[in-house]
Design brief:
Chain lengths: 302, 242
């Protein structure tokens, strides 16, 4: 009755309504959640490729069973021995026929094992030292088995990392644009509220309200609406992100089935932490935008 | 107005020593719109001592409301020097003004009540803006509203009140925070004669307790029943000050 619990002297419950602004901010937060997921996924991929592929080398030895150029043994055995003796090499292993067939199946079909082609041997090499001088290594190998190819995954990894970083930058840019639009949306809503409550503001101003008081009323309302909207938007993004994570699971080594137990693991921890940050961020944006918009508007009053 | 209550709420935080509450030195006011300027007040010089009472008279359009708006710090003078509550308004920073406004009560010609607030909340507003504790806000606002005969309309919104009732809410709001300077613009415009007399009783009581009072009116009968110092404006100029 006479209690001021919901005292709304500027009539902001109607001037800054709980429909339009929260809906728009919810849409922004939804987009922000997708962009965040993009940033986090891209950075995880970049990391993965850099760590995984950076220290892998593939060596192809044509005519593996032929004799090596100098001394005893087949070309393959001598090359494997040389690689194993090279400092910085953790592991050098020739793929067996089955593995080779698996590798070639996409190109040659399931009958690849029976095709009588002169296939090179393939040696899978893991390095402890990613900065190993592959040029010198190739010269040594060529001396033993001319025609041997040495393919460093490092270059691919670098290209993929550049791609991942570009994806990350795009997602970051999308986040920035979403933030900018959110600021604009809140500023427009606050301006509309100021126009709608011009008389009330002038009256309260005339009764001795400070700019801080009036800006505070608007900022409180804008903070509430923006954070509520962002909370809804972030919540709405969760099922979409879980669906995407389910689709991506085969490529990231996660189980495709997202059961109750796998629920928390379905999305990266960084994403679980940044989703609740969206309403907090929206609250901060709402508060700052409303404060500066209202204070600037109030300068027209004496 | 309603039953005659006591008005102990009217003690002002007044210092007691008499100085100038209002001082104007060749004050002018002009409104400019789209490049064209419209002078409304020219060369006004007068002063009112603390605890003074003034009738502000003059034909419609003479500038009475404009002068009261100047004294209420709703506009700043465009010429001359205005001193209020010991502050040179021309030199005062914008952030100084809210504090001064809280010491000035104003009854607007058009009431200017907040339409979405009840009579009680309208009257409580100046107290809440001044940061008074809610318990005191309640007591003071209800007492003032009872005094103007609106104890049964505490929760009515302005649209649900008659013109005279709205005017009485506006009067209660102007005096509830015990201003040092009370400005009233045509405060009896919507009141019948007994109500107008009761308002005069309130103004005199506040004046007796130290509040400086300026009342703009067209009500010649009221002025003749309560003779006092008079400022008369015509065409934005002061034509009489006695
Ligand atoms: N905001 C404004 N912009 C331009 N001109 C204004 C403004 N306010 C008032 N005026 C002009 O100033 C003059 C004086 O107006 P004011 O309201 O002060 O008269 P008044 O003495 O209060 O009249 P009334 O007795 O009818 O209330 C009028 O000619 C009016 O048109
Ligand atoms: Mg007037």
């Amino acid at each position: 009755m006479l209690r001021p619990a919901r005292f709304d002297d500027l009539g902001l419950r109607r001037a800054l309504s709980d429909r339009l602004l929260p809906s728009l901010v919810a849409a922004m937060a939804f987009l922000a959640a997708l962009a965040l997921a993009g940033t986090i996924a891209a950075s995880a991929l970049a990391q993965h490729w850099q760590e995984g592929a950076g220290s892998v080398l593939t060596v192809q030895v044509p005519q593996p069973a032929a004799a090596a150029s100098n001394g005893a043994g087949t070309r393959l055995d001598r090359v494997v021995a040389l690689l194993r003796a090279t400092p910085g090499v953790a592991l050098a292993r020739a793929l067996d026929d089955n593995e080779l067939a698996t590798l070639l199946r996409p190109w040659l079909g399931s009958g690849s094992g029976r095709i009588a082609l002169p296939l090179p041997a393939v040696i899978d090499v893991r390095l402890t030292d990613a900065a190993l001088d592959t040029g010198r290594l190739l010269a040594h190998v060529e001396a033993l088995a001319p025609g041997t190819l040495l393919e460093s995954h490092d270059r691919w990894a670098r290209r993929l990392a550049v791609l991942a970083r570009s994806l990350q930058a795009c997602a970051g840019l999308a986040l920035a644009v979403v933030g900018f639009v959110a600021v604009a949306v809140i500023a427009v809503a606050v301006r509309a509220g100021l126009a709608a409550r011009r008389d009330a503001i002038e009256i309260v101003h005339g009764l001795g309200a400070t700019d801080g008081y009036i800006a505070g009323r608007f900022a409180r309302r804008a903070t509430l609406l923006a954070s509520a909207g962002a909370g809804l938007g972030a919540l709405a993004a969760v099922p979409v992100l879980l669906g995407l994570a389910g689709l991506a699971a085969p490529f990231t080594g996660q189980p495709a089935d997202v059961g109750a137990a796998g629920f928390a693991n379905a999305l990266p921890l960084a994403l679980w932490l940044s989703l609740p940050a969206l309403p907090v961020l929206a609250a901060a944006v709402g508060w700052l935008t409303a404060q500066s918009t209202v204070r600037q508007w109030l300068r027209r009053l004496p | 107005m309603g039953n005659a209550g006591t008005i102990q709420v009217m003690q002002t935080g007044h210092s007691g020593q008499t100085g100038q509450m209002v001082h104007l030195d060749k004050v002018g006011l002009e409104f400019s719109r789209a490049g064209a300027s419209n002078p409304v007040l020219h060369g006004l010089s007068f002063s009112i001592l603390e605890g003074g009472f003034r009738w502000l008279l003059g034909p419609s359009g003479a500038g009475k409301t404009s002068l009261l708006r100047l004294l209420h710090l709703a506009v700043r003078p465009t010429q001359g020097r205005l001193t209020l509550l010991g502050q040179d308004i021309g030199a005062a920073s914008r952030s100084r003004l809210p504090e001064l406004r809280r010491r000035i009560g104003m009854v607007f010609q058009d009431f200017r009540l907040l339409p979405h607030l009840s009579a009680f909340d309208n009257v409580a507003l100046p107290l809440r803006l001044a940061g008074r504790p809610e318990g005191q806000v309640r007591v003071d606002a209800v007492e003032l509203l009872s005094w103007v005969g609106l104890s049964k309309k505490l929760l009515s919104r302005p649209a649900e009140l008659s013109g005279g009732e709205q005017q009485r809410v506006a009067i209660a709001r102007a005096v509830v925070a015990r201003p040092l300077l009370l400005l009233a613009d045509e405060p009896t415009g919507n009141l019948d004669e007994p109500q107008a007399e009761r308002l005069m009783q309130l103004l005199h009581e506040m004046n007796r307790l130290g509040t400086t009072v300026v009342v703009a009116t067209h009500n010649a009968a009221l002025v003749s029943r309560h003779p006092a110092h008079t400022l008369r404006l015509a065409d934005g100029q002061l034509v009489r000050d006695d």
